[in-house]
Design a protein that fits this description.
It is a single chain. It is built from 21 helices and 29 strands. It is α/β, with parallel strands linked by helices. The strands form eight sheets. Strands 1-2-5-6-8-11 form a six-stranded mixed β-sheet. Strands 12-17-16-15-13-14 form a six-stranded mixed β-sheet, sandwiched between helices. The longest helix has 24 residues, at 420-443. The structure holds beta-D-glucopyranose.
Length: 761
């Protein structure tokens, strides 16, 4: 690294001797004035993507390659003007770079933190900021300038393959968690790229899918989280999404990238495309999409030709170049930061362990099955995933971690004794299963097959006699169910539902253990929502652990043992049936995994949900639908149990003019220290914008760890403008006059206190 950096510095010094304007010493305008059309184009179009250089039309082999192997992209350095390169690297569950390098015995592993959904489920902005700060430190110390994260698209439907990277079905949760993450990462002096802006709600045909969404649903649901993070945390960059929005590619959409993002919200940074997204470089430049990533020869040629033939206004180009230069001036590489390549991975492991624990959601705990009793030491550990824990999803959101703690390892470290005979059986079974899956993968001729998530092993079943003896020999049974997903494909209904073998396993283990008075606990090591309605009556307890990062097994053990009290809450609904989500009617349910049609492939499709996805549900996404239309759910939005109990009292709503200050007392009424998430929903009057959801989350906070008997007053601030709805006719936010009910509770279905407020015009 240092070598490269010194080369850049040497270039800067030599150039300044020759008194050419230098970035930093001269005004940006003077620097731009010295740039040729080709140099401007090279700054705006990235230098290509590692591993894609064989496709000469797609990728450029730039002189800045190989600085941080495995990073997402780099920009061109222009040394005679003192412009260094800038390195962009993926997130969001941690930094994604190659863990090993050619001719180098050192390793470059990064910490695998819990996936986005798990972090959001903490509802703890301070904790997410801390996680962000650790990730940002790895970005800085590994020589990356901008992290391609956070990702905050809305969980429109449980089947979106990348929901795990995203936070919630609710834009307030998404925006607030994203803002905390951005603040944490950027506190290190490195940048973020909030993505994918916007309405990138499916992976199927993502580069060519046209999301047809009303302006109201865009404003209130799909853009709202981005608005919050832009206004509250000033991310250095935004990444436009692949899809079309109402007929225009997001990256070519001036309304989105200039009128809304910059003029309305005040975004000051640079916008980059998603990788190889969009078609028309001139339209992208005009829209305010400053950087084309990772860049290809074709795009470079097209941009230079457009400049040379005046097909693009040079003021637009200079404006975009200026934004990129302003961005470069903030980077550690520009400032000559001597990165160590040695972040404190041990300290970060402790943070991921704790944050994963706090994001886990206790869905069921009958007869206080958890925490495990003092006498429960011998554990019958069922489910392949118990021995093969899933840290995170696949694709760009993956992290090259040094290790993953399995549940079996986590239990052993916590002093439990998982059944040794079962471990042997599962090891043998997993070996065969993995060979079978690898074989099937090798035989798959689809060129993109290698990018798809690796399928999970099948489940192993036990005879009645085996189960009887395991139930005699052990104190408790744990069953882990695993689900993975990743970029490029949506989940299938079979990934959402439990399999026949899983059902048999649940039935038979519960029958055998319950017959001898022993408990069964199910751990969900899952990418996203699965079907729970049909089987949740079987086990005594269910813990949703999400994909919980590299310390996952330790984090689960902390909860099972009672070392940590669960305090996560669902940031999305677990529906009774998939089809209960309105969006399921307009989602590519069980579409072929790798469908990529449309202009980029030379094929255009009008096929419903492949070519065109109509967001007919409007703002009725998640609980906004379930609560308004009184559709029963398996577990509601905001839900999650604790080992203790809380009381809510003394609700007060004060009108402070522009804002309301809502305060409420939360007391720990149980026997164990714990944290509670306080959720404020507001029910607005039906008015000009008629069909309002019955209530919407308007603020939330998490208490500190309250000791038994202790009380905390939680204050929440709600801006009056945040209570408004978007009027399609006037294209304006409207605050209706009338009666507003402020509801405070522990989930969208568990409202404890209410207060009415009147808003007069
Ligand atoms: C993903 C982005 C990612 C980029 C760079 C794209 O395929 O959609 O989220 O940042 O690749 O790896």
């Amino acid at each position: 690294m240092k070598k490269n950096h010194y080369l850049v510095l040497a270039g800067v010094l030599m150039a300044s001797c020759a008194s050419t304007p230098q970035l930093g010493n001269s005004s940006i305008e003077d620097v731009i004035a010295q740039m040729s059309n080709e140099e401007k184009a090279k700054l705006l179009v990235g230098t290509g993507m590692e591993g894609r250089e064989e496709n000469t039309d797609e990728a450029i082999v730039g002189e800045a390659r190989g600085i941080v192997p495995g990073a997402g992209a780099v920009t061109y350095p222009i040394e005679h003007l003192g412009i260094p390169t800038m390195v962009l690297g993926d997130g969001p569950a941690g930094l994604r770079i190659s863990p090993t390098r050619e001719n180098d015995s050192l390793t470059y592993y990064c910490t695998h933190f819990p996936v986005g959904t798990a972090l959001a489920s903490t509802w703890n902005q301070q904790l997410v900021e801390e996680v962000g700060s650790c990730i940002g430190n790895e970005v800085l110390e590994y020589g990356v300038d901008v992290l391609l994260a956070p990702a905050l698209n809305i969980h429109r439907n449980p089947l979106c393959g990348r929901n795990f990277e995203y936070y919630s079905e609710d834009p307030l949760v998404s925006g607030k968690i994203a803002a905390a993450y951005v603040k944490g990462v950027q506190s290190n002096g490195v940048g973020t790229s909030v993505k994918h802006f916007a309405a990138n709600s499916q992976e199927t045909n993502r580069k060519n899918n046209n999301a047809v969404v009303s302006e109201r649903a865009l404003r209130e649901i799909y853009l709202k989280g981005f608005e919050i993070v832009v206004k509250e945390a000033q991310p250095w960059t935004v990444m436009s999404s692949y899809n079309y929005i109402n007929g225009t590619y997001a990256s070519e959409n001036k309304w989105l990238l200039t009128d809304v993002l910059r003029d309305e919200w005040g975004f000051k940074g640079a916008v980059m495309t998603d990788w190889f997204g969009g078609l028309d470089v001139v339209a992208q430049m005009n829209a305010g999409n400053d950087m084309i990533e990772p860049g290809s020869n074709k795009q470079l040629r097209e941009l230079i030709a457009a400049m040379d033939s005046n097909k693009v206004n040079m003021d637009v180009i200079d404006r975009n170049v200026k934004r990129v230069l302003e961005l470069i001036q903030k980077t550690p590489r520009y400032h000559g930061y001597a990165y160590s390549n040695k972040p404190d991975l041990k300290a970060h492991a402790a943070v991921t362990r704790q944050s994963a624990t706090e994001g886990m959601v206790l869905l069921k705990n009958e007869g206080k099955a958890l925490p495990l009793s003092e006498s429960a030491k011998h554990i019958a550990l069922f489910g392949c995933t118990s021995y093969d824990f899933i840290a995170g999803g696949t694709g760009s959101g993956d992290v090259h971690h040094a290790y993953v703690v399995s549940l079996e390892d986590g239990l052993k470290s916590a002093g439990y004794t998982p059944d040794v005979q079962m471990k042997e059986m599962y090891s043998r079974f997993l070996e065969t299963e993995k060979a079978r899956l690898a074989d099937a993968r090798a035989k798959n001729t689809d060129p993109m097959a290698a990018h798809l998530p690796v399928e999970r092993p099948d489940e192993m079943l036990f005879s009645t006699a085996e189960l009887k003896s395991l139930a005699q020999a052990n104190d408790v049974a744990l069953i882990t169910l695993g689900r993975s997903s990743g970029e490029f494909a949506d989940r299938s209904t079979s990934n959402f539902n439990i399999t026949e073998k899983e059902r048999t396993l649940l039935d038979s283990v519960c029958a055998a253990f319950h017959a001898v008075g022993k408990k069964v606990v199910v751990i969900l090591n899952i990418t996203g929502v699965i079907e729970t309605q049909s089987w949740k009556n079987l086990p005594d307890a269910i813990l949703c652990a999400w994909m919980s990062g590299q310390e996952g097994g330790n984090s689960v053990a902390d909860i099972l043992s009672g070392k940590a009290n669960p305090s996560g809450k669902l940031t999305m609904t677990f529906p009774a049936r998939l089809e209960d989500h309105l969006s399921t009617a307009n989602f590519p349910v069980d579409a072929p995994a790798m469908v990529q049609l449309g202009p980029q492939s030379g094929k255009k499709s009008d096929e419903p949900n492949i070519g065109i996805t109509k967001y007919e549900e409007g703002v009725y996404v998640g609980y906004r639908h379930f609560d308004t239309h009184q559709v029963p759910v398996s577990y509601p939005f905001g839900y999650g149990l604790s080992y203790t109990t809380f009381s809510f009292s003394n609700l007060s709503v004060k009108d402070l003019g522009e804002t309301y200050e809502v305060s409420v007392d939360i007391a720990n009424t149980g026997q164990t220290a714990g944290k509670e998430v306080v959720q404020l929903y507001v029910s607005a009057p039906v008015g000009k914008v008629t069909d309002k959801p019955v209530h919407e989350l308007r603020a939330f906070a998490k208490t500190s760890a309250l000791e038994p008997g202790k009380k905390e007053t939680v204050n929440l601030i709600v801006k009056k403008t945040d209570l408004s709805s978007f009027d399609e006719n006037t294209h304006q936010w409207v605050l209706e006059s009338g009666k507003y009910v402020f509801e405070v509770g522990a989930s969208s279905k568990d409202i404890m206190l209410k207060e009415e407020i009147n808003i007069t015009k």
